[in-house]
Design goal:
three-stranded antiparallel β-sheet, two-stranded antiparallel sheet, 86 residues, single chain, 5 strands
Length: 86
């Protein structure tokens, strides 16, 4: 299975204990865990957590068994560099 994450316009992924990425106008505060507007919190080995935060709710999280064979990835056009033409 694969976890597909679309961040939307203001979504972010944070790993507990790591410095958070700053976007042009939006940055999660480093002193609060889990981050504000967290929609998904995954427990990882070693006791750390991964958080998906999205204040505007434009992001999406999908779980797919075969991601390249199921929408939305299956609906994408071939990559002009990586995919060969038959």
């Amino acid at each position: 299975p694969a976890l597909l994450i679309h961040l939307g316009m203001s979504g972010s992924i944070s790993f507990q204990g790591a410095e958070r990425l700053a976007y042009v106008r939006f940055k999660q505060s480093d002193d609060q865990w889990p981050p504000r507007f967290t929609k998904l919190l995954l427990d990882c080995k070693g006791g750390k957590q991964l958080a998906f935060a999205d204040p505007r709710r434009f992001g999406k999280i999908l779980l797919r068994k075969n991601p390249t064979e199921q929408p939305p990835l299956s609906l994408l056009a071939p990559d002009p560099v990586a995919d060969t033409v038959p």
